Amino acid sequence: MTIQHFETIEHQLLGWATINLCGDLTAQAMEALNAAYTALESQNFSVIFFNFAGVNYINSGGIALLISLLARARQNSRTLMAYGLCSFHAELFQLAGLNHYMPILSSETGWSEPASFLEMEPPFQFEKV
Hints:
Structural class: alpha/beta
CATH topology: Transcription Regulator spoIIAA
Order of helices and strands: EEHEHEHEH
Mean pLDDT: 79
Distance between the termini: 33 Å
CATH class: Alpha Beta
Radius of gyration: 14 Å
Number of helices: 4
Low-confidence stretches: 120-129
CATH architecture: 2-Layer Sandwich
Number of strands: 5
Helix content: 25-40%
Strand content: 25-35%
Strand order of the largest sheet: 1-2-3-4-5
């Protein structure tokens, strides 16, 4: 299997930011993912969305990277959210329990994009599956 290069693209808007993920989310993605997250973390966004639409592959190393980012976010009272996951990757999130800490926006929830979710009034309530 060929590992595809991993890259991130950050977008910022009205107090929240999105990190668009592209490539294979493995341990080799650590430098790019940490750099993108750190750049946004220093700007004190309360919500950071991760767009997984460009992710082709996630392994245990990639899951471990997400868990480490979730721990950092939790220490700073920051919310991380995921969207653009294919059904297989969404299932991986559920099996690993990530969906309890990094809610997944999807057409089933009615929030398929960050803008649709942000129309809600805080505090955000998530049903644990």
